[in-house]
User: What shape does this take?
Amino acid sequence: MPAIWLSTAQAFCPGPTGLPQVAVQRVIDGDTVRLSDGRSVRMIGLNTPELGKTGRSDEPFAVAARQRLEALVASSGGRVGVLPGKESKDHYGRTLAHLYSASGANLEAQMLADGLGFQVAVAPNVDLVACQQAAERNARQAGLGVWKQSPVLKAEQIQRSGFAVISGRVSKVQRNRGGIWIELQDSLVLRVAPNLLEHFDGAALQALKGRQIEARGWIVDRSRRGGLKSGQPRWLLPLTDPSMLQSSR
Assistant: This one.
């Protein structure tokens, strides 16, 4: 990539000074690397298309994302700065961290600016949400990578669990002991768990009824967990941060 592209991406999320550099043993996929010290690092704020597993084909741009991250690591001399998140481990035992090139460029922002992944936010690791959103917005406006053809699904088009960007009109908003539930046209319900309510504007969520929204996150099939009651939407999307929900109009 030309130097001007790199400097533009670097402007989104400039890195801290004096961050120790660690050698990368290998790039596993577009958002995960294995370091020479044995740590597997899941990059904070970035979710790239999945490589094929258990008989599934690679998702579009999955291979391109891995290759791009490999190139970014190589151009950094095979070493990256590692800044662990406030929550430093995920439930798989991987280190959650921001990665930086030798020149101080945030690698998640570079991947997002190239259209090779989606911005995601899971509290409390949300320090770079604004600059990573800006990086993704540039790619989306330019129609790069995953944004070349819109990946946004209508709520009624959901067919399987996994990460997705969804649009729909809010038909119902309800608050109870389980948190706040935002229903989209009987197809999907978004949930803000009680322990995350302090990060959201409850009044703004209640005002979403009748509005067109876009949400993103990891969709769960409630019918496979035995938790689906009569009349409830089959699909559930837990909201992990306010940035994962946008009101269109």
User: Anything to note?
Assistant: Residues 3-147 form a domain with the OB fold (Dihydrolipoamide Acetyltransferase, E2P) fold (CATH 2.40.50.90).
